[in-house]
């Protein structure tokens, strides 16, 4: 599991004074993507040991949700992974809809898929920007990414009234319909997106510095990835073909034709994780095109009652969020409040293997390994 | 949804394991937990190689009422009794067979909460069991690195427990006692 550390006693005997250097990286450092700390032990430039420390943003979201009605925690789910509020909403709605029989109208299902795939584009495009930023290409690629992200955030604002904290889903449908002309504008954005991706791939994918910095760095084997519960693009980069959109077929994902990109080898490195996300964006565009073709007029809210009061039951709803499997576990006790509310955050569990991937690498590589995991601290700390 | 997993084989193989009809979960005694978990992971029929979600639940000793319509069409109130206990819940999936979930629970008492750590079986339990230890105060035997994870190390108490009392001011005094605690219990301190 761990790379063999050199025998320091032997080095001491050679008459040299040597010891490990302990560095606390973070919590206030741009490369940690928020308030996250890594306690790193260094032998020269090589990482010998690493401990992730977090909890700086902990606000006990679960306890909050247990003290309010089911619907009232919907806006709070936006704040978990604040890049992807739409998929957070969907995961929570999915878990709650299992507790009570609700029919979801066709148009709402289509809009859910469209919103969720747009979210995936937002997340992956900005992740790639941040990742290249971590590599030292400061600014320019990130701003290219943010230019595209802004166009999609404008669409979210037109539909839900907010750029990031959308609060758009409801149990049994959506809060409101999209405004007139929104679908045409979305189609324009989606049609232009591949052109940007071509440009972006040309700029990054065969760049010599990116290749030499990311290939063979942060190796994660297939066995460890499965055992450690890694999900999402990180799992697929390690060679496992597992996508919850294909496995669970929640919503109406069984109607769309799309491929799941995954790495062929048994070991995934940072470059694989970067490439899987680049390829996934192309597939999201395919899904979006099919969904925009298939959507028809109709109601957007089902037969849900005003008060959400499920009987005594348990449910676990999970979706393929851009970062991995996002699950909500609810225990209902017959009242209007959940007795137990649990979030299964993908980026929190993906951090399990950070130490395994960083040991034996250079300290500068620890930064890009963390970047390739794709964490958001709002979700890790909850 | 992916296929549900038949649980009868587990009950045949391990007579100690119970099946909870109400929620559809396996109740595994802590002493047997590792053995059952390894069997579920490695058995050809199950291959539950992926432990997705691990969490705890705290049940206080309580009664709750449910209104049910009887045969004559009148509403009756049934009083359920829920014994005090703590549970650790595992949601298991199979990546190889693409099946799941199978829900497994370890039960423990509220007075001396202890459960068997399944981190040696599934690495994904590592951080999640640490979180349960931090927020619920359940001790995991054989956990490789049981420390607080979200709260700071000096923190006292376990905030996700149902009977947890918030302190008056975290910075001034992290746990309430004496007068403040009494006022809390009488419901006089309002934030």
Quick synopsis:
The complex is a heterodimer of chains A (382) and B (191). With 382 residues, chain A is an alpha+beta fold.
| Portion in strands of chain A | 5-15%
Mean pLDDT of chain B equals 82
Strand content of chain B: 25-35%
What count of helical segments of chain B does DSSP give? 4
* Alpha carbon gap, first and last residue of chain B: 44 Å
* CATH class descriptor of chain A: Mainly Alpha
- Tally of individual domains of chain A: 1
- Helix count of chain A equals 16
The CATH homologous superfamily name of the domain at 8-125 in chain B equals: NADH:ubiquinone oxidoreductase Nqo5 subunit
Across the major sheet of chain B, the strand order is 1-2-7-6-3
Largest sheet of chain A: 3 strands, antiparallel
- Report the average pLDDT across residues of chain A: 87
Would you state the CATH class of the domain at 8-125 in chain B? Alpha Beta
Write structural notes for this entry.
The complex is a heterodimer of chains A (382) and B (191). Chain A has 16 helices and 12 strands. Chain A has 382 residues and is an alpha+beta fold. The mean pLDDT of chain A is 87. Chain B contains 4 helices and 9 strands. Chain B has a domain at 8-125: 2-Layer Sandwich (Beta Polymerase, domain 2), CATH 3.30.460. By secondary structure, chain B is of the alpha/beta class. In chain B, the strands form 3 sheets. Chain B has a 5-stranded mixed β-sheet with strand order 1-2-7-6-3, with helices on one face. In chain B, strands 4-5 form a two-stranded antiparallel ribbon. In chain B, a hairpin with a 4-residue loop joins strand 1 (18-20) and strand 2. The termini of chain B are far apart. The A-B interface holds A 54-55, 58, 60, 62-63, 224, 226-231, 240, 242, 247-250, 311-314, 316, 318, 325, 327, 329, 331, 333-335, 339-340, 342, 344, 348-349, 351-353, 381-382 and B 1-2, 22-25, 49-53, 55, 57, 64, 66, 80, 89, 91, 95, 98, 101, 103, 122-124, 126-128, 135, 148-152, 159-160.
């Amino acid at each position: 599991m761990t790379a063999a550390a050199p025998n320091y006693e032997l080095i001491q005997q050679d008459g040299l004074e040597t010891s490990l250097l302990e560095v606390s990286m973070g919590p206030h450092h741009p490369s940690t993507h928020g308030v996250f700390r890594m306690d790193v032990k260094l032998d020269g430039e090589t990482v010998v040991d690493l401990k992730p420390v977090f909890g700086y943003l902990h606000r006990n979201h679960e306890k909050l949700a247990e003290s309010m009605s089911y619907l009232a925690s919907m806006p709070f789910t936006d704040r978990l992974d604040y890049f992807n509020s739409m998929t957070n909403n969907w995961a929570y709605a999915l878990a709650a809809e299992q507790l009570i029989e609700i029919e979801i109208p066709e148009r709402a299902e289509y809009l859910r898929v469209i919103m969720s795939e747009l979210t995936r584009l937002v997340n992956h495009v900005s992740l790639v920007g941040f990742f290249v930023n971590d590599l030292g290409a400061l600014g320019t690629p990130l701003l290219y990414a943010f230019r595209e992200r802004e166009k999609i955030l404008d669409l979210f604002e037109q539909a839900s009234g907010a750029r990031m904290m959308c609060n758009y889903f409801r149990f049994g449908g959506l809060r409101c319909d999209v405004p007139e002309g929104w679908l045409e504008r979305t189609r324009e954005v989606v049609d232009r997106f591949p052109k940007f991706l071509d440009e972006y791939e040309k700029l990054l994918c065969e760049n010599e510095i990116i290749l030499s910095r990311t290939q063979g760095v942060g190796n994660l084997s297939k066995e460890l990835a499965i055992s450690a519960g890694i999900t999402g693009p990180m799992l697929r980069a390690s060679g496992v073909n597992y996508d919850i959109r294909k496995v669970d077929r929640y919503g109406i994902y069984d109607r769309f034709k799309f491929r799941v990109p995954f790495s062929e080898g048994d070991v995934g490195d940072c470059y694989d994780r970067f490439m899987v996300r680049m390829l996934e964006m192309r597939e999201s565009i395919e899904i979006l095109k099919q969904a925009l073709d298939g959507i028809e007029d109709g109601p957007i809210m089902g037969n849900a009652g005003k008060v959400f009061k499920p009987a005594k039951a348990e449910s676990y709803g999970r979706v393929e969020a851009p970062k991995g499997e996002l699950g909500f576990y609810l225990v209902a006790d017959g009242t209007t409040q959940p007795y137990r509310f649990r979030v299964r955050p993908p980026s929190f569990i993906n951090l399990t293997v950070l130490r395994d991937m960083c040991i034996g690498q250079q300290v500068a590589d620890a930064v890009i390994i963390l970047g390739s995991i794709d964490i958001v601290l709002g979700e890790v700390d909850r | 949804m992916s296929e549900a997993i038949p649980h009868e084989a587990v009950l045949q193989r391990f007579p100690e394991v119970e099946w909870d009809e109400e929620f559809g979960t396996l109740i595994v005694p802590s002493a047997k937990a590792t053995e059952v978990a390894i069997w579920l992971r490695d058995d050809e029929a199950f291959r539950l190689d992926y432990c997705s979600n691990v969490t705890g639940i705290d049940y206080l000793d309580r009664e709750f009422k449910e209104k049910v319509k009887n045969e004559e069409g009148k509403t009756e109130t049934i009083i359920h009794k829920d014994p005090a206990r703590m549970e650790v819940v595992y949601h298991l999936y199979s990546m190889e067979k693409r099946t799941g979930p199978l829900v497994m629970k370890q039960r423990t008492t509220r007075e001396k909460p202890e459960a068997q750590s399944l981190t040696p079986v599934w690495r994904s339990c590592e951080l999640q069991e640490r979180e349960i230890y931090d927020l619920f105060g359940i001790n995991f035997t054989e956990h490789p690195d049981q420390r607080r994870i979200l709260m700071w190390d000096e923190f006292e108490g376990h905030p996700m427990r149902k009977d947890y009392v918030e302190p008056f001011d975290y910075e001034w005094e992290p746990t309430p006692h004496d007068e403040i605690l009494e006022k809390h219990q009488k419901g006089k301190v309002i934030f």
